[in-house]
Amino acid sequence: MIKPASKATIDNLYKNMGGCIDEITVQMFYLRDVYSKMDKTNQSELDENVKTNRKLLLSIIKLQMTMLYTIILQATFFRNDFRSLLPVEKKFNLKNTTYMTSELFKVMFVSKRNLWNPVKCSLLSNRNTEIRQAVENIEKAIKTYNTTFYKNDRDARNISVHYDNDMKVLYDFLCNIDEEEQSKRLCSLLAIIQPLTFLANIILGHFKNSYVIDNYTTYLIYENVFGNFTEDIYNAVGHTMESFANSLDSIMKWYNYELWLPKQFIESLGNKGTMDINKKIHDATLGVFLYYIYIDVATCLRAFLSSEKPVEQRINLIRLNTITFEAIKKICNPKYPKQSFWYINVYSKIQDISDDSLQERVEVLNTDLQNFGDDAFYENGAKRHLFVHNSDILEIADKILALNSKSIIIKSKSLLDILHQILLVQKQVLTFISDREVKERINRLLKPIYELKDKILTSNSNEEVKADAINTLNQCEADITKLFE
């Protein structure tokens, strides 16, 4: 086993990653403006060298911007991880590295219209031996990453973004996230990006006098959204997250009850007993998912609050936007509401509830959830698609600059409030139904006793015999009732 890195090593890595983010953020947005200038400039205004190679240069710029964006994302996620104070927080921060590298690798090197292919073809037509050799080395690194990671990351990528309907799959995925494995993935990706970035800089350097932009600024500004309340909010969210993480662990323990309950005890339960346990586990599905989503949002919110760089703030806002969309899709599903967790686990049971005040609360929450869901689903959907699939780096750069921090934060805070309300209402609904089922079970068990009492009372036996018999049955009734208390 590899020896864990020391605190000094991690602190140094954290600092170096921060410096890297500062440098390449400027480069990425500078290239964005260069691309815009080169793309929009009239052909007659370009010098002959640029005009001849314009298509290649534009392709290289888009590829270079995507590679720089990949490094920014990975550095941001690892810095989030290094700042994490809770074990569960580290897990949720690290889970994003797999799906983002998977999506960006696909855009750059795998998809039919990948960014690398036109650049590669142009470079291979070059007679320069060193350039051709560099391309061949990059191709080998791409194949290595594709075989070792990309082809095996599909399930992890889907769970990270879309979550999963099976709570055990979702929970096991989280538990198996490993910092060392994520580091290996990053190193393998950098084996492609570093030489390719170096090669792209050499090519672009030959034309830099043709597209210099003077007095350049990135436009990114650090935002102190919560002012003096930042630390209080950070701590409060952390306390709730830790509590929910403990609750999640406790519930998920029952998903593996066959591993820790004595075999003889499980056998003594019989089919009916194990069916009851499995029903309870199924009824907990929504609660488990809500805990999971709450921790995901809370982790991301704390990452935003503790971000030190403007671009880090925006990367975490992108995560918040994606989480909100995917959570709403699972919880209330505006397109197919009857397939949602809310409908299946709570709202569909409303007809079985005779408590008017609880029915009213469910209806009010259902309306609030629909209103919030429709707004969040359709407003966040377009941005979510862009930032998850990373299909257009130029549009991504524009959208990063245009992100409305307060709007996204308010929406994520509203989501946390709604998650809390759903948890409370679901608990009430399940308690009501459980109490009713217990009463029905007691009544079924007591029915023969009631019938026997009626027969005794209408019999011709003497009163003393009747009284003794009734007292015995009353004691039986009390004993049965006590079993369910």
Would you kindly provide a written description of the structure presented here, covering whatever features stand out?
Helix content is about 80%, strand content about 0%.
SSE pattern, N- to C-terminal: HHHHHHHHHHHHHHHHHH
Uncertain stretches of 5 or more adjacent residues: none
Mean pLDDT: 84
The helix content is: over 70%
At a glance:
By secondary structure, the protein is an all-alpha fold. The protein has helices at 7-40, 48-83, 87-110, 116-124, 129-148, 154-162, 167-175, 179-205, 230-253, 257-260, 263-283, 285-305, 310-331, 341-345, 356-389, 393-402, 405-457, 463-483.
Question: Could you outline the blueprint of secondary structure elements for this entry?
Answer:
Elements: H1 7-40, H2 48-83, H3 87-110, H4 116-124, H5 129-148, H6 154-162, H7 167-175, H8 179-205, H9 230-253, H10 257-260, H11 263-283, H12 285-305, H13 310-331, H14 341-345, H15 356-389, H16 393-402, H17 405-457, H18 463-483
